[in-house]
Amino acid sequence: FPRYSWRNTLPQLSLHYIRDHHRANAELARLPRGPLGFDLEWRPNYRKGQSENPVALVQLANADTILLLHITAMAEFPKTLKDLLESVEWPKAGVNIKYDCMKLYNDRGVSVRNCVELSYLARTVDNARWKGRYADLISLARLVEAYENQSLPKGRIQRSDWQSPLNRSQQHYAANDAHAGYTLHSRLHHMAQAMNPVPHRTYYAFSIVNGIWSDYTGLSPWIPHNPFYDPGPLPPPRETKHP
Asked: Is residue 27 domain-resident?
């Protein structure tokens, strides 16, 4: 597969790498309401037993704009970012998005509403392709291969230092992940709208409110479940080895 790159999409798409909370608030205020690709990065630990480092980078993407918000470089967490994350009017799409949102709450005390887990959305709209437990995650790279016929390589950049100023390779990597989330959400959402009946958002969208897994409105407890999902046949039982 050819490599996925946000640069190969719309010519007007712009990337903004921001290290100042005032500029972050200004750019975020320009984002129209609607779906966003969402991802986080933080510096990995290189020794076992160390606690995780805090979130360093918040990535957001739509059809026109990619924002790389380097929050560890900012004097304060941008208020407009907090408002956007806590609003249901901007769906945030990604893979393993629950983990990212729980980490953001644990690190910064910020709730995230209307999260779309792309794994659950893909299982909902394309059940014939994806079998197994509904709650099992599908990697972003597998989804990009399946629906965009492109590869999304990770490599060593994934485990680089995300707290220091980002070089061009890091910026490109971070932008790709958020933009791929937006692209996949657009494609899978279109597939959902073509279904009859259209699947309910509660099958794949949720919120993390005060560290609690809730429905996408943030009002009721939630677990991943789709009553119409067919997991397919169970794998054969393991053979018992006799001495």
From this structure: yes
Q: Beta strand pairing status for 36-41 and 92-94?
A: parallel
The residue to which tokens 């690709």 are assigned: 37
Nearest C-alpha neighbor of 152 from the set 160, 143, 141: 141
Q: Within a domain: residue 236?
A: no
Per residue of the chain (243 residues), give pLDDT as tens: 899 999 998 778 999 999 999 999 999 999 999 999 999 999 988 777 788 999 999 999 999 999 999 999 999 999 999 999 999 999 999 999 999 999 999 999 999 999 999 999 999 999 999 999 999 999 999 999 999 999 998 878 888 899 999 999 999 999 999 999 999 999 999 999 999 999 999 999 999 999 999 998 888 999 999 999 999 986 667 666 555
Contact 33, 89 (CB under 8 A): yes
Nearest CA-CA partner of 37 in 186, 138, 199: 186
| The residue type at 197 | P
Domain of residue 96, CATH code: 3.30.420.10
The HSE-up count of residue 42 (CA atoms within 13 Å, CB side) is: 12
Q: How many domains does the chain have?
A: 1
For residue 235, tell me if it sits in a domain: no
User: What is the extent of the structural domain holding 10?
Assistant: 6-215
What's the pTM? 0.93
In a domain, 230, yes or no: no
Who's near 29: CB < 8 A, 6+ residues apart? 80
Based on C-alpha coordinates, what's the Rg of the chain?
19
List phi, psi (to 5°) of 93.
Answer: -115, 135
